[in-house]
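Quick start: what a row looks like.
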Amino acid sequence: MKISNSEFQIMSVLWTEAPQTVGQIIGRVQKDSKWHPNTIKTMLIRLVQKGAVTREKDGKRYFYKPMLTRGNYVSAESDDFLDFLFSGRMGPLVAHFAERKKLSKQDIDEIEKILNLIKTEND
């Protein structure tokens, strides 16, 4: 499921706390953006149509909650990114970032710990 950067902001609000009314969502989103309430409502409708968010009526109000966890979404997007840009291979991804960004000793230590843990699990 593809979610735009703008829709991701709405999802982030819902991942923080759910369920929420449209008014609560608008209030929280507008802390970080100047989006018009109608823009936020339109994005909520799109997220419901995509199946990323569900809407339940309680009296006169609708409550929105995410249908996927942040972790599941990040995992799916990470896999798509890796497949699309690096043919699903982790080595070229790490090499790319190591060449483009100067790795600190702390970064290298963290990567080594992760690799050692993976090696131990695969033995």
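That is the whole record. The two ends are 35 Å apart (CA to CA). Strands lie at 20-21, 53-58, 61-66.
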